[in-house]
Amino acid sequence: MSEIYDIEVLDKAGQTTSLKNHSGKVMLIVNTASKCGFTPQFEGLEELHKTYKDNGLVIIGFPCNQFGKQDPGSQDEIESFCQINYGVTFPIMKKIEVNGPDAAPLFSYLKDQARGIMGSQGIKWNFTKFLVGKDGEVIKRYAPKTKPAVLKADIETLLKA
User: Fold this and answer.
1) Residue 74 CB partners (closer than 8 Å, separation 6+)
2) CB distance 148 to 47 below 8 Å
3) Could you tell me whether strands 57-63 and 129-132 are parallel, antiparallel, or unpaired per DSSP bridges?
4) Which of 4, 28, 36, 59 is catalytic?
5) What is the model's pLDDT at position 37?
6) Measured on CA atoms in the order 8, 96, 12, 57, is the torsion positive or negative?
7) pTM flag (> 0.90)
8) Inter-CA distances, 130 with 15, 16, 74, 77, Å
9) Which CATH number is associated with domain 3-160?
10) Closest by CA position to 60, among listed 24, 101, 83, 32
């Protein structure tokens, strides 16, 4: 079993939950922000969620305020914004940090498993996406500018595997 399933995260209410709950599913894990130039990607993420959730895709959003302070709101404000403006129904978890000494263990693990351009480890901006296979293997890291629709072929391949 992959190490990713040993990692616990905090849900929107601050309750500990295990990624083991998603074992056997394809996960798309994204650091999000509600006041970013890439924020409209929520629409594309929700479209992926609606299209593939019944086939085993789980999208998990983690709000982060580390880049340009673009997610300053409370948990309720962030979730409300996502639902009202983009119809988001996939889980939006507790706000976290993705870089530095207080980086969430999940993102430390993801960054170690899937490096960025030129082998960089740190996350450069909001909406960095990590695709995880059914076995918990981190398959690929996508840049913030990569639109969710571009991930369809990779997601479909993993769902069929």
Assistant:
1) none
2) yes
3) unpaired
4) 36
5) 86
6) negative
7) yes
8) 23, 21, 25, 25
9) 3.40.30.10
10) 32
Phi, psi (deg, nearest 5) at residue 117: -60, 140
Residue 75's closest CA among 95, 51, 100? 95
| DSSP state string for 49-109 | HHHHGGGTEEEEEEEB-TTTT---S-HHHHHHHHHHHH---S-B---B--SSTT--HHHHH
pLDDT at 1: 44
Identify residue 99 by its one-letter amino acid code.
N
Token pair, residue 144, equals 């913030």
pLDDT of the residue at 63: 96
| Active-site annotation holds for 36 | yes
Every domain of the chain and the residues it spans: 3-160
pLDDT along the chain (161 residues), means of 10: 85 92 96 91 96 97 93 89 91 94 94 78 91 96 96 96 85
